[in-house]
């Protein structure tokens, strides 16, 4: 691998959101050079942004790639043709486009997981309202419909009982979005959601973190409990097995998050994949010997992976969402720091808008419930 | 306090070494804006450097200060007249020049500590060889001589038995370096060295970390054991008392490191002061809930201070010094990461020169001796 001045490896991140932002601290500690291609001035990772430009513009991306040794991502939105051309030009891209496609297109993801024998909900790719209604009728009169591409944080997801409820999607979906097909899935009767983080480097080494429980509100991750409280130990073993199976099966490089449902009847079904550091892994900044951000950098640089053991028996992460602020932010900020000296605050330096993730708080300690109460209180003080 | 875009506080650091570099990660997490006035392109904190210029040039410093809300330091070398003019112009400077002078001039430091009643070695400020020889003769025929200014890592320190051994210093010392005086101190019969870190914010809140043991080789910090192994509990209490006494007595703002000797007859005597994050506090990045770098930023921004409890029973930091490298650095780096997955590596991105601090390694865990063996081995793999 070619390297920059002093022999440091140069990592280029496409996308300037909080995930790129949180890759900067471990890059500094590891002595890696990190550059960010941000969408706009003032993005969350602006501090590290060396370039501002549109990731959908091929020439912008190619020029950025020439300044680094490996390209990785803050998000999954860079078009496949650009990624494949980068590889043609000899650029190291991680995750590789062959893997990343499964995080870009939910129908491809379902096809792949089915082929790997990974347990997933019943699903179908439907081309029109008739096909969709047939699936709904066969699954108790209600189902989850998702656009194949572009959804996040509950966007691009609807629970419906009549196909007409997504007529707008059939009408407006671009042909390139999986031929205009929608993904439909059975409504899973789950008791909780789990997330399994795995890191894999190009030469094949993988490391898993303890599986975590994620708590969503309005389709957005609200809290993460690490490790997931043990209800049935077999479930945790199964989650780790699935995580490693998906990592190997997709040949992902970097961090993979596998979001799962734990069902009332004791099964674990895969819900979503992300091929980058993920909200469910933010706890690892303080809660793991090696954070998901450090591990992602090690993995995409094909450096040996770090220990993923917990640093404490329990870690709880609570997201901070933007909302109507009472009083000036610096005053609220100081009050929150004063009231919660053991809470680790992460501000994304974003303008607060209602519902927007603007930061998170992590607390670690001996007892999960105590830690959770402290983390929720600290996050509320910042909200 | 005036603030930047999004209400973020803007902190300006003068000096681009590894201390400035390691302030960047907590600034990112806290959502503070950090700028660095570096001495040169390619300095350790170059990633965050917004300006490159000479800190001895008043106009360079004044222009830099106008871009931030508070000025702080990577080193103690900015001349007092520049610091005082900054305050005259209404710039928040922390630590303030009235405090920082005690870290800039060892004779002023000894005078102040004596006035505060802090236990220190016998000392004198001497103007010529006759005065110096008189002190040596009165203290068993050997003594430690230090230049009042500009010393670090064993430089500017000599153990002598005859005043002629520092004739060169008397000849060449600038008149502005404490009127050409040298500091002479008794040789202390110490059993080990301790360091007490304290943070203090302008509004007066202070926090202390557990006192640590520092192990020097050739006048350079080699290892730090946190917390210091308990030999006599009274010693640890005394170290904390002295740390707080010095912090209050000097009205320091930011992080203060008080380096101390533990003597064979059970006393604790102050050796040196530093008014910035210090090598003896690097363990706190992983070993404390709030690292010295985060705490320094909170303190100089006059934000509430964080919890300084240990995150594990033991943390050991080992410095990595540059030396003759065997094999290309990226290859050695990968081998070291592979062999030590639980070691936390900190690279300063400096060109290695023999004896130069180019990084450090920290390991945390349950048992100090086990952790120490692991940290020493990991640092050796990088050296």
TrEMBL record, chains A, B:
Pathway: Purine metabolism; IMP biosynthesis via de novo pathway; 5-amino-1-(5-phospho-D-ribosyl)imidazole-4-carboxylate from 5-amino-1-(5-phospho-D-ribosyl)imidazole (N5-CAIR route): step 1/2. It is an enzyme of class 6 (ligase). Signal peptide: none annotated. InterPro entries: ATP-grasp, ATP-grasp_carboxylate-amine, ATP_grasp_subdomain_1, PreATP-grasp_dom_sf, PurK, PurK_C, PurT/PurK_preATP-grasp, Rudment_hybrid_motif. Its EC number is 6.3.4.18. Pfam families: ATP-grasp (PF02222), PurK_C (PF17769), RS_preATP-grasp-like (PF22660). HAMAP family: PurK. This is N5-carboxyaminoimidazole ribonucleotide synthase. It comes from Leucobacter allii. The gene is purK.
């Amino acid at each position: 691998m070619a390297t920059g001045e002093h022999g440091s490896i140069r990592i280029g991140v496409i996308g300037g959101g909080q995930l790129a932002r949180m890759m900067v601290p471990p890059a500094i500690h590891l002595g890696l050079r990190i550059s960010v291609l941000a969408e706009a001035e003032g993005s969350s990772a602006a501090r590290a942004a060396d370039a501002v430009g549109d990731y959908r513009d091929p020439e912008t991306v190619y020029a950025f790639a020439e300044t680094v040794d490996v390209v990785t991502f803050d998000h999954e939105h860079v078009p496949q043709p650009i990624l494949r051309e980068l590889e043609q030009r000899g650029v190291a891209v991680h995750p590789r486009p062959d893997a990343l496609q499964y995080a870009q297109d939910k129908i491809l993801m379902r096809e792949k997981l089915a082929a790997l024998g990974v347990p997933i909900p019943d699903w179908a790719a439907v081309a029109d309202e008739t096909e969709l209604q047939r699936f709904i009728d066969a699954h108790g009169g209600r189902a989850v419909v998702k656009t194949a591409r572009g959804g996040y944080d509950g966007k691009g997801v609807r629970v419906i009982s009549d196909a007409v409820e997504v007529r707008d999607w059939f009408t407006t979906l671009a042909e390139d979005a999986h031929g205009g097909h929608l993904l439909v899935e059975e409504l899973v009767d789950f008791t909780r959601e789990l997330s399994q983080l795995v890191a894999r480097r190009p030469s094949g080494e993988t490391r898993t973190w303890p599986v975590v429980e994620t708590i969503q509100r309005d389709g957005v991750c609200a809290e993460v409990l690490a490790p997931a409280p043990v209800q049935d130990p077999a479930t945790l073993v199964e989650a780790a097995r699935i995580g490693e199976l998906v990592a190997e099966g997709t040949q992902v490089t970097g961090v993979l998050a596998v979001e799962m449902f734990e069902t009332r009847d004791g099964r674990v079904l895969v819900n979503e994949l992300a091929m980058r550091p993920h909200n469910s892994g933010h706890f690892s900044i303080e809660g793991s010997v090696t954070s998901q951000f450090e591990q992602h950098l090690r993995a995409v640089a094909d450096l040996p992976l770090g220990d993923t053991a917990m640093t404490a028996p329990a870690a709880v992460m609570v997201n901070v969402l933007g909302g109507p602020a009472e009083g000036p932010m610096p005053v609220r900020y100081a009050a929150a720091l004063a009231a919660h000296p053991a809470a680790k605050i992460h501000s994304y330096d974003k303008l607060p808008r209602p519902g927007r993730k603007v930061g998170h708080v992590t607390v670690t300690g001996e007892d999960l419930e105590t830690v959770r109460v402290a983390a929720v209180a600290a996050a509320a003080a910042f909200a």
